[in-house]
Amino acid sequence: MHIAIASDHAGYDLKKELVRFLEEKGHTLHDFGTHGPASVDYPDYARPAAQAVARGECQRGILICGTGLGMSYVANKVKGIRAAACQGCYSARRSRLDNDANVLCLGGRVLGVGLAREIVEVWLSTKFSAQARHQRRIKKIEAFEAECG
């Protein structure tokens, strides 16, 4: 799978670990930065990564900041993105199964490396259920997104 990945300074160390983990699993990564621990602003990294997913250049995205929340706020402003900030495997699974989330947001200050790897693995391996009720809800999100321009 081709995955966009990005972090701010608070997620940098976890991103390095996840890059290694994902490459070992055979995934292709497009790393949008940051590329060091110096303080940066997460919107500068979340936006281009989310845009790459929205344009179809990457199949999914993984964004990492201190809590995962800031990255999710930015990613969800990009038309076509359904970003989920997850702190456990259950929410990761449900974000894919029910909502077809295409961006996963993680917190480098709230998750250990082991749990983060588990969350990523569950999220990447879970397919959208495509049940009618879930498709209907996603279409409503897309319609609202179109209204908001």
Second CATH tier, the architecture? 3-Layer(aba) Sandwich
User: What structural category do the secondary elements indicate?
Assistant: alpha/beta
Through-space gap between termini: 30 Å
Low-confidence stretches: none
Strand order of the largest sheet: 2-1-3-5-4
Q: Which homologous superfamily in CATH is the superfamily?
A: Sugar-phosphate isomerase, RpiB/LacA/LacB
In what range is the share of β-strand residues?
A: 15-25%
How is the main sheet built? 5 strands, parallel
**How would you describe the shape?**
globular
Specify the CATH class: Alpha Beta
Helical stretch tally = 6
Q: How many structural units, i.e. domains?
A: 1
Radius of gyration of CA atoms, rounded to a whole number: 14 Å
| Total number of strands | 5
Task: Look up the CATH topology.
Answer: Ribose 5-phosphate Isomerase B, Chain: A
Helix content: 40-55%
SSE succession: EHEHEHEHEHH
Mean pLDDT: 96
Short description:
The chain is an alpha/beta fold and 149 residues long. It has helices at 12-24, 43-54, 69-75, 89-97, 113-125, 132-148; strands at 2-7, 28-31, 60-65, 83-85, 103-107.
Task: Give an overview in words.
By secondary structure, the chain is of the alpha/beta class. The chain has a single domain, classed as 3-Layer(aba) Sandwich (Ribose 5-phosphate Isomerase B, Chain: A), CATH 3.40.1400. Helix content is 48%, strand content 16%. A five-stranded parallel sheet has the order 2-1-3-5-4, sandwiched between helices. Helix 4 links the parallel strand 4 and strand 5. The radius of gyration is 14 Å and the shape is globular. The termini are far apart. The relative contact order is 0.17. The mean pLDDT is 96.
